[in-house]
Structure formats: C-alpha cells, structure tokens
Design goal:
Layout (H helix, E strand, L loop, with lengths): L1 H22 L3 H14 L4 H13 L3 H14 L4 H13 L3 H14 L4 H13 L3 H14 L4 H13 L3 H14 L3 H4 L4 H21 L1
Amino acid sequence: MVRHTSDCNDAEALIGEATSLIEKKLYHEAMSTLRRGVSVDPNNPKVWENMAICNLEMGKPKMALQALDNLVRIQPQCHSGWADKGILHLLLNETNEGIDALQESLRIYPRRVYGWELLGMVLVTEERWEEAIDVLERTLDLNPNSAVTWYNLAVCYMLFDDMDLAVQSAEIAFSIDPSLKELAEDWWDLVQDDFEEDDLLSLSDASGS
C-alpha cells in the first residue's frame, strides 16, 4: 500500500513536470517525462490524456488515438475522452468508429450540445437520414437556436419528401443565420416552387369543391 501511494505521488510529480513542458511547447521533452510516468503508474489517466495532447501537437494523430484508447480503458465513463476519440477517428476518416465513440460520449453525458451537433452532421454526411433526424431533433431540444441543425434537418425532410417541414426548418435556419441561404441555393428554390405549387393545387381543389 505504501509503495502504491509512492508510485502515485511519483506519477503526479511527473505529470506536473510534463504539464509545465507542454505549456512551454516542449512536446518531445514532455513525452519523455510522460513515458516515465507510464512506467511508474500505467493506469494514471492524466498521463494518457497528456500523451494524447503531445502527440496531437506533434502531428501524430494515430499515437494520440492510442493514448485516448488507454484513457477510456482506464476511465470508461470519461465522456470527454470518448468525444476526443470520436473526433480523432473522424479526422482519420474512420467514420464508423468516430460515430460509435461520439455516441458513447453522449450516452455518458447527454447534455453536451456540440457532441449532438457534430454527430448529426456526420450522420447527414453519411446519408443515414433516419438516425440523423433523431439526433438533430435531440440537438434542437438542447439548443433550439442551432442554425446548422435546423438546416440539416431541412435537408433530411426534403429527402423524405416532407416539403412542409423542409421549408419550415429551412426558414428557421435562415432566420438565425442568413448566410446559410447561400449554401442552400442549389435546392431551396426548387423546394419553394414545389411548396407553392402544392399550395396552389390545394386552393384549386378547395375552390372546385
């Protein structure tokens, strides 16, 4: 027990030294210090967290990912570790792994708005429309002023031929962030034309009756 306490104290001292080196942007020196920390206490999550930071700063995302794998192995309820792991997988074009990690992060901490926004965007990009709608609606429950979420929801509704909801969602998105209208120029006019045509047909049917 005494030895374990001593090891933990030694690891904490090394982490403190590494943190100081990271602040000075001395990443190689920090990594050397953190490797000593691993040899002293391989299950210290702060060691692996700082290793991930150093590897990212040195342009080694795969090594950073390995460090995060160790972090979430030691602390499986660390939502930020899962979130960072998800983002790194996405940057490495490992989309399915990225989605899984983001979902785990949100399972642990479901009030992380940015995580829902990112997951929604990824699902839209992957054309997983039904899953995307569920995630986007969850995002809006937490942040109803997320313009990009309303925009992505409009795209999903359009692809499901629900033009009423597509137009409503797009108009909310544009009211929050007018610049999104430029992004929608390829499809917005078509959707509006279809929407107006349906309205005219409805009026015609009503007058005919």
